[in-house]
Structures are given as structure tokens and as C-alpha cells.
């Protein structure tokens, strides 16, 4: 699995295909996303955090993954006439979430906010590959789906403060 995560971070197609065709791709994806947010909250906040805070961050991460996947699916499938399923899109987008962990290392070199921006941009690139694979979109359409999905995600999160 670690090799697949590394290859996904390098924007190689194969790990995304494996997640889409796996019978338990969404379940594996949920584990990946939960583990990423668990590591982020523990390593960012360190010791002395309440269990409720950890649970809340992990659940927010899972809800954010579902929301981002759904918005990319809606844009790619219905606006850009792609193929594929919501489950396949969820599975494919999940394998890219470990790139958010790069913000931990980057914050030693750049400001923490800038590190998070860089990691988030990298996540959008992984969502681009996921849209290409899961929704069978051409490069440009997949980029539009990833970009519009990300912008819609930011709008929804800002409005509802998820």
C-alpha cells in the first residue's frame, strides 16, 4: 500500500486504477483518509489533545473527502459527460490524500499556512489524476473537474463551516 501511495503522489495512473477496480476501494479509501487526518492532528497538535478533538478532525476529514469526491463526480459526470461511478471517484480520490502529510515537512522550510497551501495544491493534482481514471475524462476535462470540484468544496466548507 505504501508503494501505491508514493506512486499516487507522483501522479502515476496505476494506483488510481487499482483503487477504482478494487471491490473494497471505498473502504480502503476511508481507512487511508482517516489515517492521514489522524496523523495530521497528532503530529500538528502533539500531546495533550483531547480524544474528542481527534475524533472531530478525523470525521471532518472523512466528510471533506466525501464532499470533495461528490463535487468532482458531479462536475465530471454530469457537466463534462464523463463515465464512472461516485464510488469509483471516492476510491480514486482517497489514494491522493497522503500528500497532505507533506505539509508537516514543508512547514519546517516555509510558513505553516504556505505549507498547507502547497500540500492542498498537490492534492488537487492527485484529484485531477483520479478524475481522469475514475470518470474516464480527457486531461483538460479532468483538470476542469478537479478545479471546479475543489472550488465548490471550498465554497461549501466556507458557507457551512464544516
Describe this structure in words.
Helices cover 77% and strands 0% of the residues. By secondary structure, the protein is mainly alpha-helical. The chain has one domain. The longest helix is centred in the middle third of the chain and has 29 residues. 35% of the residues are buried.
Summarize this structure as a short list of keywords or feature phrases.
8 helices; 77% helix
What secondary-structure arrangement, pairings included, does this model have?
Blueprint: H1 2-9, H2 14-21, H3 25-45, H4 51-79, H5 86-94, H6 102-106, H7 112-134, H8 139-160
Let me know the number of strands. Answer: 0
What general form does the structure show? globular
The ordered H/E elements are HHHHHHHH
Fraction in beta strands: under 5%
Helix content: over 70%
Distance between the termini: 29 Å
Structural class per helix/strand content? mainly alpha
Mean pLDDT rating: 91
User: What is the C-alpha radius of gyration, as a whole number of Å?
Assistant: 15 Å
Tell me the number of helical segments per DSSP (H or I, 4 or more residues long): 8
Low-confidence runs (pLDDT<50, min 5 residues)?
Answer: none
Number of domains: 1
Amino acid at each position: 500500500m505504501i508503494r501505491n501511495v508514493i506512486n499516487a503522489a507522483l501522479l502515476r495512473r496505476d494506483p488510481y486504477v487499482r483503487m477504482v477496480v478494487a471491490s473494497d476501494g471505498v473502504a480502503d479509501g476511508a481507512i487511508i483518509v482517516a489515517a492521514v487526518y489522524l496523523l495530521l492532528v497528532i503530529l500538528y497538535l502533539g500531546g495533550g489533545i483531547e480524544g474528542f478533538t481527534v475524533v472531530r478532525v478525523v470525521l471532518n476529514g472523512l466528510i471533506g473527502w466525501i464532499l470533495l469526491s461528490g463535487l468532482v463526480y458531479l462536475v465530471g459526470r454530469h457537466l463534462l459527460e464523463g463515465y464512472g461511478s461516485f464510488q469509483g471517484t471516492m476510491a480514486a480520490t482517497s489514494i491522493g490524500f497522503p500528500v497532505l502529510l507533506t505539509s508537516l515537512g514543508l512547514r519546517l522550510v516555509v510558513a505553516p499556512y504556505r505549507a498547507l497551501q502547497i500540500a492542498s495544491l498537490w492534492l488537487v493534482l492527485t484529484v485531477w489524476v483520479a478524475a481522469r481514471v475514475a470518470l474516464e475524462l480527457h486531461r483538460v476535462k479532468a483538470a476542469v473537474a478537479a478545479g471546479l470540484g475543489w472550488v465548490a468544496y471550498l465554497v461549501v466548507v466556507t458557507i457551512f463551516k464544516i
